[in-house]
Amino acid sequence: MSIQTALITGAGGGMGSEIARQLAAAGFHCLLTGRREGPLEEVVAEIEAAGGSASAHPLDVTDSVQIQALVDRRKEECLDALICCAGDWLIKPLEAVTDAEIEHILAVNLVGPMLMARSFLPQLRRSENATILNIGSIASMRYVPQISIYTAAKTGLRGFTGALAEELRPERIRCVLLSPGPADTPMRWAATPQADPDTLVTPETIARTVAHIVTLPPGTTVTEFLLISQGYGEDAARKMLDD
């Protein structure tokens, strides 16, 4: 049996790098993508030191030219899992948001996964057990103020993933939205340094969940779901932003 291959976006740090470590430990060759080569190479080195297999492929998920260049380099190969983890966050009242910020948040969180899925479908179709997994957000299920643009992007991703799952169902390509609650990542702490650690889900937990989904038996899938810490209450997000 040939080794399976997973492509992870946003793999230079946070939950993306942990997903890469977990999938490599499960026997996948991991293609790590991100905008900066240095952090990707560091994760590759960690994976290889632990006995896994990985390679770094710097690219911007909002740039279709860069994406196509990677597709062309691997056009004859099979891809078993596409994990879209790259994302960015914005906390601002709507009237303070700039045009450039709107374009950026929508591009990274919504357009990027669309471009990646469209571009890598031929390789995914070569797999006997293909998965497209998009990292969503609790923001598309529980609304809070000052993150309207981010919420719009993640809600769009939720709709896109659900519709694509139905489109690809006849081909048995599973397409899943995994929506974590607030996660214990550098992006979270930079955005809300006052966060209560007890309300955060760990990257390791998210990564283990991803690894379980992509190794489900062929022809089986899961629907979208929310993954949160049991310390996260209904008012936790508002308190996190208000403090």
Written description of the protein model:
Helix content is 44%, strand content 14%. The chain has a single domain, classed as NAD(P)-binding Rossmann-like Domain (Rossmann fold). Helix 3 runs parallel beside helix 4 and helix 4 runs parallel beside helix 5. The mean pLDDT is 91. It is globular.
Quick gist of this model?
The chain has helices at residues 14-25, 37-49, 64-73, 99-124, 148-168, 186-191, 203-214, 236-242, and strands spanning 5-8, 29-34, 53-58, 81-84, 131-135, 174-180, 225-227. The chain has 243 residues and is of the alpha/beta class. Strands 3-2-1-4-5-6-7 form a seven-stranded parallel beta sheet, with helices on both faces.
The CATH architecture can be given as 3-Layer(aba) Sandwich
Tally of helical segments = 8
- Class derived from helix and strand content: alpha/beta
Question: What is the averaged pLDDT score?
Answer: 91
- Strands of the biggest beta sheet: in what spatial order? 3-2-1-4-5-6-7
**Rg, please?**
17 Å
Q: What portion of the residues fall into strands of 2 or more residues?
A: 5-15%
Record field, number of beta strands: 7
SSE run: EHEHEHEHEHEHHEH
- Globular, elongated, flat, extended or rod-shaped: what is the shape? globular
Overall structural domain count:
1
Write the layout of secondary structure elements.
Blueprint: E1 5-8, H1 14-25, E2 29-34, H2 37-49, E3 53-58, H3 64-73, E4 81-84, H4 99-124, E5 131-135, H5 148-168, E6 174-180, H6 186-191, H7 203-214, E7 225-227, H8 236-242
Parallel strand pairs: 1-2, 1-4, 2-3, 4-5, 5-6, 6-7
Helix pairs in contact: 1-2, 1-7, 3-4, 4-5
